[in-house]
Amino acid sequence: EAGVTQSPRYAVLQEGQAVSFWCDPISGHDTLYWYQQPRDQGPQLLVYFRDEAVIDNSQLPSDRFSAVRPKGTNSTLKIQSAKQGDTATYLCASSRDRPNTEVFFGKGTRLTVV
Amino acid sequence: AQSVTQPDARVTVSEGASLQLRCKYSYSATPYLFWYVQYPRQGLQLLLKYYSGDPVVQGVNSFEAEFSKSNSSFHLQKASVHWSDSAVYFCALSMRAGGYKVVFGSGTRLLVSP
Question: Which of B34, B92, B101 is the closest to A48 by Cβ?
């Protein structure tokens, strides 16, 4: 079974530039999560979907961040105008919508904004 | 609000010594609890999980965790650590909120010294 795939693995931007991250979850997983993990901190949930619907995006900075999962499979997280404070690893994860189910993580995209 | 607290940012133990990494949670309903490990330049991997039943759960690599409802805790333990256990360990809480929302603690960096 293929794991969660993310691309790109690394990105370096100047402030004000835009970037998109792409995630392919494990086949059959209806729930997809995007986390932001600053250096030496725990993953912080930005948004999660069940199928194509956004369940919770309350921690997503809506003025510059957006996330979609149009067909309930792959997902894209976009930062419209990056800031130095966005420097972090962005993790995508997926799971089945069942209790006590494991969440599987991709290797992440390491973003540096200079 | 639901949260996970890992009070120890760094823990250093000698190889062969026993280990306990602390985790406290705040959640009014029955929690689903997890421990994940993150090795350098790798994704998060599940060590063990708990929902109900025996409060002591066994995981991979001889790790175990003990759930305490009265203390709102889910501490990770290992009887004898190996240098390869050096990594960052995250406690996580899953709660039903539309889908299954998974939140993480800030992590504990474990260093096993020879």
Answer: B101
